Amino acid sequence: MAASGDFDGFAVKKRKMKNKFKQMIADAAAEAPTLQPLLQAEGATRERKRKDKKKQNAAMEETVGVQADAPGTAAAPPPPSAAATHQPQTAASRPPVLSHPGRGKNGKGGSLLQQMRQRLQGGRFRWLNETLYTSDGAAALEMIQQQPELMEQYHEGFREQTKAWPLQPVDQAIRWLRGRPLGWTVADLGCGDAKIAATVAQTVHSFDLAATVPGVIACNMAAVPLPDAAVDAAIFCLSLMGTDYGAFLAEAARVLKPTGWLWIAEVQSRFMHSGGHSVLPAFLAALAELGFQVKRKDTSNSHFLVLELQRQDMQHKVNGGGDRQRSLEWPELRACQYKKR
């Protein structure tokens, strides 16, 4: 009974230490996403110590067994508690096997190190996401040019955050284009991994802050390398991220043909301010000033809305997102915040 009590106390203590360690990792991930190499080293050290301890215990048991079997050696009867400890164990008396740290009762799931890595990746994604939403296009481009790997990390985190969405907005854009003329030329502004270009039959120019896949052109969405009136459709699929997003839309108006189409998908919560006030009417009013008329508005999805607009006024000429854009009043859109996972 004493051995069983000692084991239970040890298990409780180890569980508390494990939970405390996991909480420390979560806090560190939220505050400093760059700690991953240090945490990996810490995890490796802990694993190495565990293995060394296991080897030492095995060696001690082997030594005791050899001494007990040595000829001419009379083994003294062990104390009652020690004898109880070393008696052969039955299935009923054997203590439960401790699962690997970070695994469930069935032994499945990621290791503690894998969980640490996932938390760090999530923290880094949220930091990148907030930075991109609170910077203008030029500053975001400069940051990504200095650290190109950040863009792939962002895309990886974005896929992880949105994989549970019942419907992906990029698939909506693809479905819309499949119902449009095959001869169209399309500008995908903020294209991510360029899934649209890889899927539809139309000619697609893909733009983003970094070229993470072949065919993507890295640029500021307020200054894309296309001539005036060059495309039939411009697409913003969750990519109105900068504080100067109005310049992105003005640039889309510049490169669109006189009766070209603008397709927008955005997270619904971005248009909702405190007190339940929606800035969507003000957003649509600014687009109307830019020369666009709403042809379809879909707010049925719980995560994002879809807008289909067409240019109506050929006089709304926007030179590179310049004077005309600055005269418009664009409402402030909330930064999109993703939950911790």
UniProtKB/TrEMBL annotation:
Task: Please provide, in alphabetical order, the Gene Ontology terms of the cellular component aspect for this entry.
Answer: nucleolus
Keyword annotations from UniProtKB, A to Z: Chromatin regulator, Methyltransferase, Nucleus, Repressor, rRNA processing, S-adenosyl-L-methionine, Transcription, Transcription regulation, Transferase
Region Disordered: what ranges? 29-111
Q: What Enzyme Commission number(s) apply to this enzyme?
A: 2.1.1.-
Residue ranges annotated as compositionally biased, kind Low complexity, are 82-92
Q: Which InterPro entries match?
A: RRP8, RRP8_N, SAM-dependent_MTases_sf
User: Is the keyword Transcription regulation assigned to this protein?
Assistant: yes
Return one Gene Ontology term, BP aspect: methylation
Molecular functions (GO terms): methyltransferase activity
- Bias (Basic residues): 47-56
| Range of residues in the leader sequence | none
Q: Pfam families in the record, alphabetically? A: Methyltransf_8
UniProt cross-references to SUPFAM superfamilies, sorted A to Z:
S-adenosyl-L-methionine-dependent methyltransferases (SSF53335)
Places the protein is found? Nucleus, Nucleolus
* Protein family per UniProt: Belongs to the methyltransferase superfamily. RRP8 family.
Q: What PANTHER family does the database record attribute to this sequence?
A: RIBOSOMAL RNA-PROCESSING PROTEIN 8 (PTHR12787:SF0)
Free-text function comment from the UniProt entry: Probable methyltransferase required to silence rDNA.
Can you say what this protein is called?
Answer: Ribosomal RNA-processing protein 8
Instruction: Provide the organism lineage as a comma list.
Output: Eukaryota, Viridiplantae, Chlorophyta, core chlorophytes, Trebouxiophyceae
